[in-house]
Design a protein that fits this description.
alpha/beta; Rossmann fold; 3 domains; six-stranded mixed beta sheet; binds adenosine-5'-triphosphate
């Protein structure tokens, strides 16, 4: 309970912080609206009494009097309706402000979170629940709270009115609604648990949906004729969730019928009582109308009020997911004593490094130690799955190791602020990004803060052999590339790779890491880049991961990784003489060309 109150407080803080003015307007209008129905009911009573008096006695109550009351009724009616519409506008405006604010919080959190979270399915469950709830749930809490207060205020006013007639009717008004409220609270819990448990399945259907509608899978899907297969998988996954949900809702609807019977019985008793009192002459026609309306309104308020309470209970269950995500802890941070990053002076030391991916029961990196001197070009080679890309991620501190350390000169990189530390690296990842933005922006992404970058953007593009292709695009460097947006041009995979390389070169970082940078390059471009490699890297400390041994040979030193451990190190000549793994891999590859 304490935890739920804390979540409510947090949600209300978010709703307030995102738009204080609109939140205030929302509360203010709701309070005003609590009084209007009572005034209306009271005016109607005066109106009916005046009209019946005039009609039965023929006493000739001045028509002006009746006219004024009619006018007052119409004005209050208009105010009630208009304030309802205005209130909808205010609520919408506030919820949009909050949605914007919450997306800001979600996005800031997502970009800060440790990369290791992306290796865990639980993270995606948590993210998908937070993304579903965060944009609207805090506002729902505020609205439910405001509705509850408004309902309570209106109800007290109406109940006060009914009390003047008969206290048992006021109690009946409350009791008749209890089964419905219990029902809502009970099923809120069931539905929440159901949805939480269904998150992995819901993500599965979303994934099959993407396979069927996404751009990337579209080619293979057609070629291998996988469409119907995925449609079946989607259907199974979707129906699995929906059948169960419909089952729960069907049961709830049936029990709701019974709870409505309670309310109908309460109405019956009230009608009989009021009719009896009126026939017995204890109530005037105006009073009869007033009490009937008050009872009816009271039922509505009580339903709204308890409905809002049940809604708040439901909110308290769901909002926890948003805070669960927002409160995920970042572990990749700067440990004390914090060291300010600086350009590399001597070397990077990898000291007895070990790392295991979450969920794996084996070490992907196993007691690896080596050094990279400043300005040295290192090639990292090894069979698929040897751990090369993982080692790069550890070097950039995208993950922290289980044991051992990476040292940047004499500093353990855990003592450097990760964001600042990563500025010292420029990397072309194996699965580099394609940004559906302009060609120029795609290169400038290497250092988005660099102003007046045009000349360097173009020279980086020229170095990787893509400048001419870009200038031939309809708007040159201002052409949007990719196929997502209007007026954009799709590139070949090799052209994308050249752009990714240009992006890495554009970033003026002291350490350059290229993970399979030439897998899609044509022979000319590859030859051109690798024959000038030293000139291109301009003395930067570089790590090259490649399966192409013609490129690997240019490195000062080659490190051969196998099953997460270092198998051998040396220059090309040394390793060839050694006759180990490197020799075997090199001779196999070169034998294909020497026939
Ligand atoms: P390749 O030459 O094929 O690119 P690599 O040497 O770069 O391979 P890594 O990508 O580092 O190899 O992967 C090494 C091993 O780590 C893999 O065999 C796999 O078992 C494991 N692995 C890689 N990525 C993950 C991940 N995200 N979650 C769990 N295990 C992973």
């Amino acid at each position: 309970m304490k935890e739920k109150i804390k979540l409510f407080r947090e949600s209300l803080r978010l709703a307030w912080e995102s738009a204080p003015g609109w939140a205030f307007a929302n509360i203010f209008i709701s309070v005003i609206r609590s009084f209007l129905p009572l005034i209306l009911v009271w005016l109607l009573k005066i109106l009916i009494d005046n009209i019946t008096k005039a009609a039965t006695t023929g006493s000739g109550i001045p028509f002006d009097n009746v006219l004024w009351i009619i006018l007052a009724v119409v004005v209050v009616y208009f105010l009630d309706e208009a304030s309802s519409d205005f209130s909808n506008y205010v609520r919408k405006k506030q919820s949009l402000e909050l949605e914007f604010y919450m997306y800001g919080l979600l996005h800031s959190k997502a970009i800060k979170l440790d990369l290791i979270n992306f290796e865990r399915p639980e993270y995606f469950d948590c993210l998908s629940r937070a993304a579903r709830e965060a944009p609207w749930r805090p506002n729902n809490i505020l609205n439910n709270l405001v509705s509850m207060l408004r309902g309570l205020l209106s109800l007290l006013l109406m109940a006060g009115l009914i009390l003047t007639l008969q206290w048992t009717l006021a109690v009946l008004l409350l009791v008749a609604n209890i089964p419905g409220i219990w029902l809502r609270i009970h099923y809120a819990g069931i539905l929440y648990n159901f949805q939480r448990q269904q998150t992995p399945e819901a993500r599965k259907s979303a994934y099959f949906n993407w396979l069927l509608t996404g751009d990337r899978p579209s080619r293979e899907l057609r070629l291998f004729g996988l469409g119907n297969y995925f449609i079946d998988l989607f259907k199974k996954s979707f129906l699995k969730q929906k059948d169960e949900e419909i089952n729960i809702i069907r049961k709830r609807t049936l029990i709701e019928l019974i709870s409505n019977l309670f309310k109908a019985s309460a109405l019956l008793i009230t009608l009989l009582f009021i009719a009896n009192q009126t026939i017995g002459g204890k109530l005037s026609l105006g009073q009869m109308a007033m009490f009937l309306l008050a009872f009816r309104q009271g039922m509505i308020y009580i339903k709204d009020m308890f409905g809002s309470m049940a809604g708040l209970y439901e909110d308290s269950l769901f909002i926890g997911d948003t805070f669960e995500f927002l409160n995920l802890k970042e572990n990749v941070t700067a440990a004390e004593p914090v060291v300010t990053p600086y350009p590399l002076k001597k070397k990077i030391i990898v000291d007895n490094l070990s790392f295991t991916y979450p969920g794996n029961n084996f070490r992907t990196i196993n007691n690896v130690s080596f050094e990279i001197k400043k300005g040295e070009i290192i090639a990292l080679v090894g069979p698929n799955g040897a751990g090369k890309s993982t080692l790069v991620r550890l070097l950039c501190r995208l993950y922290d190791p289980d044991s051992g350390a990476v040292k940047y000169d004499d500093s353990d990189i855990r003592n450097i602020d990760p964001e600042e530390y990563r500025k010292l690296f420029s990397v072309v990842f194996q699965d580099f990004m394609l940004y559906n933005l302009t060609a120029g922006e795609n290169i400038r992404m290497g250092n988005i803060n660099e102003e007046k970058a045009d000349v360097r953007v173009k020279s980086s593009a020229a170095t990787t052999g893509v400048h001419e292709m870009i200038t031939n695009l309809p708007k040159g460097y201002d052409t949007v590339i990719g196929n997502l947006f209007d007026d954009s041009r799709e590139l070949s995979w090799g052209e994308w790779q050249k752009i990714a390389l240009a992006r890495a070169l554009f970033r003026d970082a002291p350490v350059l890491i290229l993970d399979e940078p030439s897998s899609a390059l044509d022979a000319d471009t590859e030859y051109d880049i690798f024959s000038r490699f030293r000139e291109i890297v301009k003395g930067r400390t570089s790590i090259l991961i490649s399966h192409r041994f013609t490129n690997v040979g240019l490195a000062d030193r080659i490190i051969v990784l196998n099953k997460g451990a270092i198998a051998e190190t040396g220059t090309h000549d040394e390793l060839m003489k050694r006759g180990g793994i490197y020799f075997a891999m090199f001779t196999k590859q070169s034998s294909r060309f020497s026939v």
